[in-house]
């Protein structure tokens, strides 16, 4: 069994934030949650998260993730941190991950574990500028001997460009023994996890190395600039996956995926689109520029036009929505609907082929098939205390600038004359009018300004 230990006790002062570092978000999830889900992807039998700085804030925020939280009261070094968890470990092998290094991939970690075999595995990279990192010291035959931290390194060791990423795997029993032997007599007065490398070599256990597929996988986040950089890289990965699945992105750098998106065939997504939460997009569907779509299902052959916001809604096949439409939670468009500019729909169903093309508010309504809602129509669903339903049956025509005061039912095929305020049910097939008769005065003169 593989036991994963995730270090997440550090302070993160340079984030300049009240929020503990590992709770800052990439995509739609806190940094630490990315790492936990990668550990699960690896099939880890148990996950221990070492927390400390920020107190209970981290375990509280991520309580739903069902991991073993281990408190490190004082941050005395990476070796001390792993030592806090080691007594809880039941697996034969330990893998150490970091709560502030979110893009490490399961594929890279699998290669690391394979490289380790029954010994120690260490993920290393060659950097043009290794400043700040621990250096990997090898012997003449290329065998790893030890790691030396920047602050403890001599001039020739500082020349080494191969660095420690921190990702390490070791047999649990041996690791436990080595951790117990760590000392803090170094430049920083810390218990270094990296000192177990030399101990392993001393015990005849080889340190086998692997490299990440992409250097972004091992980049930690210490400040908001690095957070933004990792977010960009994460978005690049999301966009690449969509394109590989056949989605056309007008500009992969101007799409943000903050959740799980699935797309059918021949989907086209224009620039500056944000897809949040769980979003399903059907085949032959086009998403226009500047749209925000949250937890929604968009059917086949749908066209979402520019600047549309859709949240927790279902958009049926063949519908056209926008530009500038707002579709709020609980809305279901059955299909072939036309929803136009400045139309807001909340908690309503709209039947097949119905049109609400301009400047309307529809809330708590059930609208049948082939209904036409004229410009400026409002369902008055709220009486100041309670919400009420509006029912509009099939083939109704609602004239422009009408108010439908709920609760109210408009029967099948009825017509509402423009400018009506409907407060009573309208029978099927009837014409309902509610307007002041028009009056005019022939030859009427406008007032003129008096001369002073
Ligand atoms: C560490 C490595 C260094 C490596 C670098 C890669 C050691 C001694 N050094 O250095 O070789 O090149 O990472 O980034 O391991 N943490 C705790 N508790 C502690 C100390 C640290 O949870 O007591 C956590 C931190 O929150 C952080 C991680 O461990 O996520 C690394 O700690 P940090 O102090 O940043 O290590 P580095 O000095 O960068
Ligand atoms: Ca009116």
Describe what you observe in this structure.
This protein is of the alpha/beta class and 452 residues long. The protein contains seven helices and 39 strands. Strands 13, 15, 17, 18, 20, 21, 23, 24, 26, 27, 29, 30, 33 and 36 form a 14-stranded parallel β-sheet that branches. The structure holds uridine-diphosphate-N-acetylglucosamine (UD1) and calcium ion (CA). The site of calcium ion (CA) has 2 residues, from loops.
Determine the N-to-C terminus distance. Answer: 100 Å
Q: Mind describing the biggest β-sheet?
A: 14 strands, parallel
Enumerate the spans where pLDDT stays under 50 for 5 or more consecutive residues.
none
* Oligomeric composition of the shown chains: single chain
Strand content: 25-35%
Shape: elongated
Ligands, deduplicated: uridine-diphosphate-N-acetylglucosamine, calcium ion
Number of helices: 7
What structural category arises from helix and sheet content?
A: alpha/beta
Total DSSP E strands: 39
């Amino acid at each position: 069994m593989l036991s994963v230990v995730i270090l997440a006790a550090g302070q993160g002062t340079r984030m300049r934030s009240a929020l503990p570092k590992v709770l800052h978000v990439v995509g739609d999830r806190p940094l630490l949650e990315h790492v936990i889900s990668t550990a699960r992807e690896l099939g880890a039998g148990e996950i221990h998260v070492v927390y400390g700085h920020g107190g209970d804030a981290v375990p509280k925020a991520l309580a739903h993730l069902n991991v073993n939280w281990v408190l490190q009261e004082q941050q005395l070094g990476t070796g001390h941190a792993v030592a806090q968890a080691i007594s809880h470990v039941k697996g034969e092998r330990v893998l150490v991950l970091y709560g502030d290094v979110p893009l490490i991939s399961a594929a890279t970690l699998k290669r690391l574990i394979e490289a380790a075999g029954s010994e120690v595995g260490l993920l290393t990279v060659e950097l043009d500028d290794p400043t700040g990192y621990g250096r990997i010291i090898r012997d003449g035959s290329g065998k790893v001997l030890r790691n030396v931290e920047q602050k403890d390194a001599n001039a020739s060791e500082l020349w080494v460009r191969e660095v420690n990423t921190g990702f390490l795997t070791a047999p649990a029993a041996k690791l436990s023994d080595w951790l117990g032997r760590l000392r803090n007599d170094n430049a920083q007065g810390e218990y270094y996890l990296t000192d177990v490398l030399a101990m392993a070599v001393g015990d005849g256990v080889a340190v086998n190395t692997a490299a990440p597929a992409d250097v972004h996988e091992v980049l930690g986040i210490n400040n908001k600039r690095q957070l933004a950089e990792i977010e960009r890289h994460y978005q690049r990965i999301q966009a690449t996956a969509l394109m590989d699945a056949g989605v056309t992105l007008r500009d992969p750098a101007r799409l943000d995926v903050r959740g799980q998106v699935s797309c059918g065939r021949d989907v086209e997504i224009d620039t500056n689109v944000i897809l949040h939460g769980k979003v399903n997009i059907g085949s032959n569907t086009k998403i226009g520029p500047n749209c925000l779509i949250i937890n929604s299902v968009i059917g086949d052959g749908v066209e979402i036009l520019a600047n549309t916001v859709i949240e927790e809604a279902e958009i049926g096949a063949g519908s056209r929505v926008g530009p500038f439409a707002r579709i709020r939670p609980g809305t279901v468009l059955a299909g072939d609907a036309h929803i136009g500019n400045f139309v807001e729909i909340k908690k309503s169903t709209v039947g097949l082929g119905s049109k609400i093309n301009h400047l309307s508010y529809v809330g708590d309504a059930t609208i049948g098939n082939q209904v036409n809602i004229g410009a400026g129509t409002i369902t008055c669903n709220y009486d100041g205390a309670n919400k009420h339903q509006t029912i509009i049956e099939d083939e109704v025509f609602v004239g422009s600038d009408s108010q439908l005061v709920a609760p109210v039912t408009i029967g099948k095929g009825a017509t509402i004359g423009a400018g009506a305020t409907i407060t009573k049910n309208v029978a099927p097939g009837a014409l309902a009018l509610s307007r002041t008769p028009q009056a005019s005065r022939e030859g009427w003169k406008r007032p003129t300004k008096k001369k002073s």
